[in-house]
Amino acid sequence: MINAYAKWFGYVVLLGVVINIGLSLLAFGFPEWLLGLLGLEPAVPIIWLRFAANLLILLSLFYIPAAIDLNRYQANAWLAVISRLAGFIFFLTQPRDYWLLGLIDFSFFIPEAILLILAQRNQTTTVSTS
Predict the structure, then answer these.
(1) Domains of the chain by residue range
(2) Can you give the pLDDT at residue 107?
(3) CA-to-CA distance for 24 and 60, rounded, in angstroms?
(4) How far is Cα 35 from Cα 102, in angstroms, rounded to an integer?
């Protein structure tokens, strides 16, 4: 039986990966434009924005195994959820101009956390009734 919560968890995680990588690629290719679009001050030197984008891509790649096979990669799943919460908290402690970036993480944290908990409960229920 397919765990619908696990399936939707994977969809939400993969959507987040696509958004993270999309923003990161914009930060690599058009850093000044992206900062202007977000209403943020220019980053000096620009290498730090690009380095942060590089790290975000690498972090996002670690989310993918849990999105594809939640049962096998539960630790990755929890780390993905915790990373979203950590991102939200980090940006919330920064000047208000950066809060939008935290809201992006928060908008993925909530559904990922709920779906992960429900998926694990569903898996436990399915295993115990088998």
Answers:
(1) 4-123
(2) 98
(3) 10
(4) 15
Q: Are 112 and 104 in contact (CB under 8 A)?
A: no
User: Tokens 């993918």 appear where?
Assistant: 64
Say which residue the tokens 């539960």 belong to: 74
Query: Amino acid identity of 104?
Result: I
102-127: per-residue pLDDT in tens?
A: 999 999 999 999 999 999 998 866 65
> What is residue 72's DSSP assignment?
T
Closest CA to 15 of 75, 63, 82: 63
Query: How many residues can be counted in the chain?
Result: 130
pLDDT digits (tens, 9 = 90+) for 46-98: 999 999 999 999 999 999 999 999 999 999 999 999 999 999 999 999 999 99
Predicted TM-score (pTM) of the model is: 0.90
63 in Cβ contact with 13 (< 8 Å)? yes
Residues 100, 90, 94, 20, CA torsion sign:
negative
Cβ of 4: how many Cβ atoms within 10 Å?
Answer: 12
Closest by CA position to 101, among listed 110, 109, 92: 92
CA atoms within 13 A on the CB side of 56: 24
